[in-house]
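Quarterly update from the structural biology core.
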Amino acid sequence: MVAASEFESPLYRTALAQLDTIAERLKLESSIHARLRYPRRALIVSVPVRMDDGRTEVFIGYRVHHDTALGPSKGGLRYDPSVDLGEVTALAMLMTWKCALVGLPYGGAKGGVRCTPHHLSLREREGMTRRYTAEIMPLVGPDLDILAPDLGTDEQTMAWVMDTYSMTQGRSVPGVVTGKPLIIGGSHGRREATGRGIVYVLHQAAHRLGHELRGKRVVVQGFGNVGSVVARLLWNDGCTIVGIGDVNGGIWTEEGLDVLKLQAHVKESGSVVGFPGAESISSTELLEQACDVLVPAAVESQLHAGNADRVKASLIVEGANGPTTSEADVILYERGVQVVPDILANAGGVVVSYFEWVQDLQYHFWRETEVISRLQEIMTRSFDRIWEVAKREGISLRAAALMEGIGRVAEAHRIRGLYP
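Predicted structure, tokenized:
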């Protein structure tokens, strides 16, 4: 029996609050609303791993399918100490809305293992990944549930998942995961897809607001696979990157950071902290610095009731999943701060994951220019549609995006009906 406390995560409460608000606005049937509040299925597994010192340690893993009305489920696999059933369920729910919003034939899923990945050796991480894959085997497959990298996982993790699954099938099955290395069926453009998609919608938002993005002062929280790409691309576009943070803290300089030099510093030291010529500040202070654009691209619940009234950016583009709580959302909207929500802003990753999956199923691979062009088309079209809905209804971009995503999933349920 799962304890009720397993679901008591801030992100899950935020996701439910968003769904309930939009369900009321859409006048959603109570039967469909009730179905969307809960995952279709959830699996909790124990993951025993033989450690390098010879002892066996047991980790707890999860895989949740939120909804499959539109197609097989799709979602990331994260390794983090904060992973629990509530967090994974909330992220699966957000993935459902995200896929529907940008028109992908997927439902939402999420998985994770509660661990501290940087405390594990390479061999221990491989052992944990392979055992986790074996434990969730009944739920995954190229036409059931497709995994992708997330917090604490990467291309190598996906290669281990694919190999483990393939060994049980007696053949190579590249379509069981996305975000894997090119040599085994990965896609050009996947690694930068989330960051690139954020930049595309940021350009569209600036255009709609009547601004020129060049010269704008930008703060990016997070300098991993997403934040580093956003910072580099915006820096190349002429923005002034005044602040960047990571798990160890933040850095700030009025003159702007040289992102290429910062990347070299991070590669050598492992953190943005200590970058020559920049002032060290806390991650909390970073979010409250004077800037035009704020990109929270780290973890969830970073903008909340305690700091939303001190945020000075006029435009926020959510790179992370769930970085803004529902309470903060209200405060920011009332202050006139434009927020491009996560289910739209960071959808570039799942869009190119879809491209990779299609290529794997067809065994026909695209050029990088083709991937980038199709990504830009989908992100631009999705943003423009949501902007028009928000303008017509007099609501926030988040509410408009959720209306589109939830509305499409609800329509699929109406058409398919209820079995039996």
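The chain has 14 helices and twelve strands.
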